[in-house]
């Protein structure tokens, strides 16, 4: 029996309310003939997670509160690579990005595991790589280190590979191309 090879499928989730780096990265990856989807979350309606446990006990894996996440999360389940592009806010994701990512637990494994002496969860679906790009023009070293540390922790918990990047809003095409190369490795 032949082992099925999983085709790379990239999803970019971008809070492009104050930048267009996500769109530039999407265009760059499309030119490289990558299978990539772009989801702009600047104006989506994703309600907060109310910690009601409905997704665990009532509608297993689906939020009982219907919103635009019903469109977003199935795309993430099928993706092998997630790229999050967000304005940096105090060393973390923007409010809109955080709201979308808080409900990603819907497609996470319900169990915890110990890996390398660390408590981790795995993701359902095909995800193998996670990248996050924080955008901020005047980013302090402390804020950059906080964001990088957060992303490393997310990568560990999700049991995937990936990396964090911090760019300015007016980043060069060469910076975008370098990230595209890292994503494609």
Keywords for this structure?
alpha/beta, two-stranded antiparallel sheet, Rossmann fold, 185 residues
Would you write up a description of this structure?
A 5-stranded parallel β-sheet has the order 2-1-3-6-7, with helices on both faces. It has a single domain, classed as 3-Layer(aba) Sandwich (Rossmann fold), CATH 3.40.50.360. It is an alpha/beta fold. The protein contains 6 helices and 7 strands. 31% of the residues are buried.
Summarize the amount of helix as a percent range.
Answer: 25-40%
Per CATH, the class reads Alpha Beta
Taken together, the total number of domains comes to: 1
CATH fold category name:
Rossmann fold
String of helices and strands: EHEHHEHEEEHEH
Oligomeric description of these chains: single chain
Largest sheet at a glance?
5 strands, parallel
The overall pLDDT average reads 88
The total of beta strands comes to 7
Proportion of residues in extended strands: 15-25%
Termini Cα gap: 28 Å
Sheet with most strands: strand arrangement: 2-1-3-6-7
Cα radius of gyration in angstroms = 16 Å
- What is the CATH architecture term? 3-Layer(aba) Sandwich
Tell the overall outline.
globular
Structural class: alpha/beta
Pick out the low-confidence regions.
Answer: none
């Amino acid at each position: 029996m032949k082992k099925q090879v999983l085709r790379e499928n990239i999803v970019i989730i971008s809070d492009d309310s104050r930048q267009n780096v996500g769109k530039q990265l999407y265009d760059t990856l499309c030119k490289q003939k990558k299978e990539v989807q772009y989801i702009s979350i600047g104006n989506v309606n994703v309600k907060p997670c109310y910690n009601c446990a409905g997704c665990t006990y009532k509608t297993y894996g689906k939020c009982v509160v219907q919103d635009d996440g019903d469109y977003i999360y199935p795309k993430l389940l099928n993706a092998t690579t997630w790229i999050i592009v967000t304005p940096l806010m105090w060393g973390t994701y923007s409010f809109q990005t955080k709201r979308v990512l808080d409900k990603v637990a819907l497609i996470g494994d319900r169990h915890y595991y110990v890996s390398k002496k660390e408590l981790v969860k795995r993701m359902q679906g095909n995800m193998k790589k996670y990248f996050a790009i924080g955008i901020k023009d005047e980013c302090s070293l402390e804020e950059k280190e906080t964001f990088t540390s957060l992303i490393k922790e997310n990568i560990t918990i999700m049991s995937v590979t990936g990396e964090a990047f911090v760019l300015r809003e007016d980043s060069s095409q060469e910076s975008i191309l370098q990230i595209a190369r890292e994503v494609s490795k």
